[in-house]
Amino acid sequence: MEWAPNKDLAQNTNISVAMARVFLTDYEKFYQWSIQQKVKFWTLTTKLTGIVYDKRPDTFLEIHEEKEKSIWLKGAELNIAKSCFTTSLDAIAIKFQENPDAELKQITYGTLKEYCNRIANSFEHDHLEAGQKIALICPMTAEAVAIYIASVLYGLIIIPISADSSTEEISKVLSQESPHLVFTQDIHTRSNKVTDIYTKVTDATSIRTVVIPEKESVCQDLQKDDKAWATFLSSKKIFSPKATSPETPISIFTNSESPITWNHTSPIKMAADGFYHINIQPCDTVCFPSDFDHSISTWLIFSTLINQGTIALYYDCPEKSDFSKFIANAQVNILGAMPELISDWHKSKKMEGSDWSAIKNYISTGNNRDIKSAEYLMKLSGECKPIIEYLIHPELSGAYLTGSLIKSVFPCQFSTPTLGSEVSLEKDQRTKLHLPLLGSTPAIKKPKAISDYLYLDDVIEELPSGYYKLCE
Prior knowledge:
By secondary structure, the protein is an alpha/beta fold. The chain has a domain at about 105-230: Rossmann fold, CATH 3.40.50. About 30% of the residues lie in helices and about 20% in strands. The protein contains 14 helices and 27 strands. It has a seven-stranded mixed sheet with strand order 4-3-15-14-16-17-18. Strands 6-5-7-10-11 form a five-stranded parallel sheet, with helices on both faces. Strands 23, 24, 25, 26 and 27 form a five-stranded antiparallel sheet that branches. It is globular and about 65 Å long. It starts with 6 loop residues before the first helix and ends with a strand.
């Protein structure tokens, strides 16, 4: 199955707007320009995505003899969370539904900003200091999104951990990272099954914990030094974000062989991929159900908000038919799903029967090999819609292979490297990325990088068409 863009759609994509800025009409020439003229490309990209600086960089990219030591945005000061609030405060930032019987709710950018400011002021009242770590062990909720953004505003380093993790898994991460404070939810109900998250946390650690209630109030007795969310939360709605160096850490991703640190440049890469390849435009509603410890969740926050879109969150089970109704009622424009979830939808047929006509395109995480299920999803809205495969890697703060809405889309194939990423395939089909890469941090380049390159273990095949696919 092939999806091909029509002329009107292609002309209105973000990529076409960017190409017009540099007087190009051919995508391949634009891609080559993005890797050969990195400074010009990323300067344009930060303008188009509205990245906010407190102090503009003296040098956008200082290339070191050892490429892995090159410095991005040298001399700049910024807080990347400020770039999440560049649109009208009346625009919708988050749509969410807590369970199948709950109503669809909305949060404006203005309300989200005030909420994040209240949380940041709460950090201050709790005497946390910039550079300290906090852990977030929550499902993907509006409160969790606000805590993540507020931690960046304040200058903390956040460690997201899946709410589905076992007590032993939680204990291991918390012992390794030693956060000063833990945020969690009391319970989480999905498909009428209740998970007691708070008890797992207290069994795993004695670190002070702030507990967010699933309903009106916390349903368990709290341990001595722990606080309920309502008690912790400040009423002060004004906060002055702390500007810092672009290389200052914002988050540690632990769901990999070794911890990976993201800094203030990481969301720029996320936003760029969202802008160019996923084509997130102002007011687009973007949904991608996932656990908070998967890098796609952080990608969803920054790529959507920096590009002035709307995050759609469904707190219950995305395998059930009620999720299909949520997608229709929330008027989701861009829907993401892990390959396993796409296959489940195909087998169960539970997504059928709802009006998905608002969907413009889909996203999957690039490791999809189930062509039949991908074709099923492409046709699910009643007319063929493209799935942009997005081969995300935490060490890159985004993807290196993906697709584009100005090129034909085939199931489970990549039509292009991401703009700004120079990719080579070795004889054994391993992937070699040319450094420097914006968004990848020095901590993750050892031991996989050898000065000028970053090697990944993915085995990629280049097809006669010039497209790529992931090998078995």
